[in-house]
Amino acid sequence: MFKNYIKTAFRSLLKNKGFTAINILGLALGLCACLLIVFYVVDELSYDRYNTKHDRIFRVNSDLKLGENRKDYAVIMPPLAKTLIAEFPYVEDAVRVKNAYTIHVKKGDVNMVESKAAFADPSLFHVFTLPMLTGDAKTALAEPNSLVLTESTAVRYFGKTDVVGTTMTLNENQNFKVTGVIKDLPKTSHFNFDFFLSMATWEDSRSNAWLRNDYTTYVLLKDKADAKKLSASLNPFLYKVSGDQMKKEIGMSYNDFEKSGSYFRMDLIPLTDIHLKSNRIGELGANSTIQYVYIFSAIAIFILLIACVNFMNLSTARSANRAREVGVRKVLGSSRSFLVAQFLSESIMVTFFATIIALVFAVGLLPQFNQLAGKEMAVTSSTLIWLIPAAVFTVLFVGALAGSYPAFFLSAFQPIEVLKGKLSAGFKGGGLRSFLVVFQFGISVFLIMGTLVIKNQLNFIQTTNLGFNRDQVLVIQNAYELNKETKTFKNELTQLPGVTSATMTDFLPVSVNRRSTSIFFKDATLDQKNSIFPQSWEVDTEWIPTLDIKMAAGRNFAADRVSDSSAIIINEAAAKFLGYKNALGQTLYKSNGGKTELSNTVKYEVIGVMKDFHYSSMHEKIEPLIIRLAENNGSISLRVNASNLPALMSQIKTKWAGFSPVQMNYSFMDQDFDASYRSEQRVGTIFIIFTTLAIIIACLGLFGLAAYAAEQRTKEIGIRKVLGASVSAIVGMLSKDFVKLVVISIVFAVPLAWYCMTLWLQDFAYRVNIQWWVVAVAGLAAIAIAVITVSFQSVKAALANPVKSLKNE
Amino acid sequence: MIKITNLEKFYRTEEVETIALNKLSMEVNTGEFVAIMGPSGCGKSTLLNILGMLDDPDAGSYVFNGTEIAHFNERKRADLRKHNIGFVFQSFNLIDELTVFENVELPLIYTGVSSADRVKRVEEVLDKMQIMHRRNHYPQQLSGGQQQRVAIARAVVNKPKLILADEPTGNLDSSNGNEVMELLTDLNEQGTTIIMVTHSEHDARYSHRIIRLLDGQTVMENIMV
Ligand SMILES: Nc1ncnc2c1ncn2[C@@H]1O[C@H](COP(=O)(O)OP(=O)(O)OP(=O)(O)O)[C@@H](O)[C@H]1O
Ligand SMILES: [Mg+2]
Predict the structure, then answer these.
(1) Residues spanned by the domain of A72
(2) How does it sit in the bilayer (chain A) (predicted)?
(3) Is A55 exposed, middle or buried (0-12, 13-18, 19+ CB in 10 A)?
């Protein structure tokens, strides 16, 4: 019996090759796109879950409010980790990780620049699941000057992993003993380092200071311990252990501190939430946002829905054609259940083929998709664990869903009615089908609008005047290599023709660069209420001209004025925050940190106000910024104006080689800027690709439906032509019905898309407004796409010779 | 009104070439009522389709009202057709989704008659065909005879000079069939030229002249008295 179903189904599918092809192709395309997105989403959601104890690991976050200033940190005080273990019995362990930024590692005679290095407590291997290939996990990071490498780093330096006991020379003269080699960190780790140096090496880590936060700290709770309980105990605990230090250094108790409107609070974030939900100061790596997971999941569901709708539409449309077949079968004695089974096996078979094709393509396209999404996903045994059941479920569910309507609808017909041709009237009122077309095109319109808005916003970011000029600025990232000679090197570069100006500082207005904040008080009373907590950057006299920053008032620092060492320049945002009508000549007291008293501050005079410029991402408002003169040799930025850039570059490199054996590390500021929006760009591209796919799938469906409608109406078309209808009248008649549906879908989709995209834009402090033309373009595009698709079929039908269609009576 | 000379029509399928019309010549004058008869497959419908400008001949000449139209393109033919010719088919060919009224109205829409005029003229012919009371019914709700009356109403609503009928009584019982023949005779008496294909000698007797076809050629013409 079962074989009979399959055989009949197979023949019926082969008989209608066109429909079958459109059906399988549309569904396969949809499933494939959907699957790729599912890969992406699963990958995003799997961050840090490689840790076997992930549900017991939390990071301690802190929030600081100082007067009107608010900052969120991912870091906490140095002594907190060990104190928590000692004081809370249900805290099983804790580990601190501190970014070491760049280190130099000697390989042969060369110093390699390594940027993925961190200090970590020995408990790292107890808290996190970082399997050790060689070495002892219990003692690996216990001693000062010991380090642990990842597998690929060990191979890179030694060609093998069996290197425990070997000595490595870091930063010219520090000898470290390799005490372990671990497997490479999974890509799905929110931090990613090649070197772990023992925290004991880092002198500062023994600090007992409670009034600073600069150590990423993870706690591991005991089994079944309540994280909420710890979270609630953190602040009272802090007040208890550090109240004395607070009184002594700041001169007030935590109570008074809170009463003055300020606060310092700690909280826990589950390890597995960090990647998608945390974007704080001091993150160990760039995290993603849950928003993208939502957006992509929505697109995946949309595409799947569109594909399923197609499938249902085409199946039901085609099945009406088979009414006569059903009638004859019934007259000949076929039972209803046989017919139901037959229709269902057909649609399940189509789904099966489509799923197979989708799987093959999705796996085949994964490398390309990885590149697009900036990921390294692969199909592994753990993927198969969910993929295979999901595929089986898809086949059965989608197949049954799409097949159910024709199966039950048609098989219920009385054969006499079917044979009399009554069905065609019932079919034409296909309310379900109209609804499904509206639904499909609604989604398409939504996606088109979404794409346009995202494109607009990204374009806006690219072209907005940032307030400084990022073009033609070369940044030498590791200028600090030259130590005291950095300045000499910079001065020599200034002599080169093609270099307009040069500035030496690590503080640059591209968000990947260094940041630092200080507290400034408005007057000598040093009142919290009159304080500002701005970005506080160290620059030189060439900084403003090199970056081409405009002054709103006052002047730049001058090299020949000794008094400028106690001068500061603020941005307009700072002037506004401080409530200055005329900022020039005002004084500010910069706290040196620690105790709040006059002797512990430096007095500065405001000599200039810079026009606001975007120094962090467009997601954030321009915050107060104060710059002052100080020597900072972190990097050198050059404004170049060279017709022959390669020649200039090689001149600069030659000069550099005269100063240091280390390789010069450089980039162009506009590229750094673009890099900081890469995730948005990625999302934009992915969005556009999948939107296009969704529209193609919707068109396939419409194409099939139009073909079907034209076929259904061949007789009518023939009669109308005999009676004098022109080709254009027929095309119009056939297209009108579909266009009507598309217009309805626009009416529904536009407000929804408008609303959702407004929400998305809300995430940018600087954003475009949704323009009316976006709606017009999306709407017209949908109509145009529908008309073109349908026209293929209607023109064909309208051109056909009516004699033929009328003869088939 | 109609003069065809040496008209030829072939049908080519993969293997065989069928000669549907073989150097056929004939003439029909204005006001005539002509019946075409012949065995199945002899080319009657083919001839009627060409006369009705639905199809074009492969060779020969077709002069309609003094104009040679054998080489007209589809648009010109369609234009000429909708103003001059009405069709009646064996299987009625009414549009199931339209009411009686709307079916009859269609040719007027395509010739651009204003809507007020349309209502007047449709009601006029429905009255004449005695199916006015069925104006809002759908074809499925009518008997075969009623359906054919609607089809005839639709064929004449535009006041064509020529009506082409392909076995108009083929699907009807004899009393309904006679009714249809009476209607056609009436129309002919009012001046409409009629060419009708039929298998029934009885029906053929309503005409003035019978043209008998065999294998795409005229074999005989009978003048009725
Ligand atoms: N589209 C076509 N393709 C191939 N051959 C055709 C086609 N249409 C008609 N023929 C052939 O042309 C010949 C004439 O057909 P036609 O339909 O004119 O016959 P008829 O006289 O109307 O027959 P009937 O009385 O059965 O309606 C037949 O042999 C038929 O097989
Ligand atoms: Mg015939």
Answers:
(1) 57-277
(2) Multi-pass membrane protein
(3) middle
What is the value of pTM for the model shown? 0.73
Residue A328 pLDDT class (50, 70, 90 cuts): low
Of A252, A277, A302, which closes a domain? A277
3-state secondary structure of A535: strand
- Say if residue A211 is in the same domain as residue A153: yes
Q: How far is CA B162 from CA A347, A647, B45, B193, in A?
A: 52, 90, 16, 5
Distance in angstroms (rounded) separating the CA atoms of residues A552 and A567: 16
The answer to whether residue B44 sits within a structural domain is yes
One domain for residues A138 and A269: yes
Per CB-CB distance under 8 Å, the chain A contacts of B96 are 424-425, 716
Residue A153 lies in a domain: yes
For chain A, positions 325-354, list CB contacts with chain B under 8 A: none
Per-residue pLDDT tens digits for B17-75: 888 898 999 999 999 999 999 999 898 988 998 998 888 889 999 999 999 998 888 77
Of A722, A724, A803, the CB nearest to B111: A724
Is A711 among the domain residues?
no
Could you tell me if residue A519 is left (phi over 0), alpha (psi between -120 and 50 degrees) or otherwise beta?
A: beta
End-to-end CA distance of chain A: 36
Cβ A724–B93 below 8 Å, yes or no? no
Nearest to A414 by CA among A339, A343, A331: A331
B43 CB near ligand 1 (under 6 Å): yes
Give the integer Cα–Cα distance in Å for A375 and A94. Answer: 30
pLDDT, tens digit (0-9, with 9 covering 90-100), for A100-137: 877 889 888 888 888 899 999 999 999 999 999 999 99
pLDDT tier at A425 (50, 70, 90 boundaries)? very low
pLDDT at A295: 83
Give the tens place of pLDDT for each residue, A70-104.
778 899 999 999 999 999 999 999 999 998 877 88
For residues A31 and A62, state if they share a domain.
no
**CA distances in angstroms from A701 to A21, A217, A242, A351, A797, listed in the order given:** 11, 54, 68, 15, 18
Q: Could you tell me if A270 and A328 lie in one domain?
A: no
* Domain assignment of residue B211, yes or no: yes
Ligand 1 atom 17 nearest Cα: B45
For residues A204 and A266, state if they share a domain.
yes
Q: Which pLDDT score, from 0 to 100, does residue A594 have?
A: 66
Measured between beta carbons, the chain A residues lying within 8 angstroms of B45 are 807
ipTM, two decimals, is 0.79
A462: closest CA of chain B, how far (Å) = 55
How near does any CA of chain B get to the CA of A725, in Å?
Answer: 6
Give a yes or no: residue A107 inside a domain: yes
Residue of chain A minimizing CA distance to B95: A716
Determine the distance separating the centroid of ligand 2 and the alpha carbon of B93, expressed in angstroms. 14
Q: How many domains does chain B have?
A: 1
Counting every residue written for chain A, the total comes to 809
Q: Are B140 and B96 in contact (CB under 8 A)?
A: yes
Are A186 and A310 part of one and the same domain?
Answer: no
Do A219 and A141 lie in one domain? The reply is yes
**pLDDT by residue (tens digit) across B149-163?**
899 999 989 899 999
> Which residues in A lie closer than 8 A to residue B75 (C-beta atoms)?
726
CATH of the domain at B86: 3.40.50.300
Contact B55/A721, CB-based, under 8 Å?
A: no
- pLDDT level of residue A683 (50, 70, 90 thresholds): confident
With a 6 Å cutoff on the Cβ, whether B18 touches ligand 1 is yes
Size of interface A-B (CB pairs under 8 A): 54
Q: Does a structural domain hold residue A465?
A: no
Nearest to A803 among B54, B95, B107 (CB): B54
Q: Are residues A72 and A217 located together in one domain of the fold? A: yes
Could you tell me the two tokens for A640?
């170049």
Range of the domain at B166: 32-56+74-223
